[in-house]
Amino acid sequence: MSAIRIFAVAMVLTAVTFATAQAATMDEIKEATDALIEFIEKGDYKKAQGKVDFLSAALNEFDFDVKKKFFKDDLAGFIGGEMSAQSVMGISVIERTYTRGGKTVKVSLTDLVASAGPAGLAAMDQMFGQQQATFRLPGRVAASVTNQGGLTEITATIGRSIFRVESSNTKEEKVKEVANAFPIKELLDYVEGR
After folding, report:
1. For residue range 7-57, what is the model confidence (pLDDT) as tens digits?
2. Which of 5, 57, 65, 135 is surrounded by the most beta carbons within 10 Å?
3. What are the CA-CA distances from residue 1 to residues 5, 8, 13, 160 (Å)?
């Protein structure tokens, strides 16, 4: 089987798993958990792995829904617009643009639900620009501030997620205010299971 065909099959399976997870109910999760235990007890590890995949996708979707709730309607006097939320192939992105007096600030959370690990997150974080300055967000979260080509961008790693606040028409101090108004400490508590 060619690499392209294997990749295509993997994409289809990921899409099917994701679509299944979106529709998962608590009853379906309980049923899948019971079936998982049964398959393991019988030594049918192929079927058990299928249940693990389903449960993992369902839990990732629930986690994604919880994280959307951290995007409040008002951050430092900037009012939130429509929220964009997508989850595809192990990466979920939540974005919301906040406005005040003609100024806009975009806040996003990119979550690598696949097993990228800290090294993958650090590489992704560095992809988005050189660190020029640092400051602390609530919860003692270190953030980098980049000003490049009129774009102010604040980036921080929170758990397995990249938190980003950016604007091309708002002063750095206001972008920092929006970043500080985001419930970072609560998000950090959630991702660390506190």
Report:
1. 433 444 444 444 444 557 888 888 989 998 999 999 999 998 999 988 888
2. 57
3. 6, 11, 16, 33
Q: Are residues 91 and 137 in the same domain?
A: yes
Bridge partners of residue 152, in order along the sequence: 147, 167
Query: Are residues 61 and 88 part of one domain?
Result: no
Q: Are residues 152 and 181 in the same domain?
A: yes
46's enclosing H/E stretch is helix 45-68
pTM of the model: 0.72
Q: Decide if 110 contacts 91 (C-beta within 8 A).
A: yes
Which two structure tokens, joined as six digits, stand for 93?
A: 């992105």
| Residue-number span of the structural domain to which 34 is assigned | 3-66
DSSP 110-163: EEE-SS-HHHHHHHHHHHT----EEEEETTTEEEEEEEETTEEEEEEEETTEEE
Structure token pair of residue 31: 């049923």
* Distance, CA of 15 to CA of 135 (rounded, Å): 39
Alpha-carbon span 153 to 187, nearest angstrom: 20
* Single-letter code of the amino acid located at 79: I
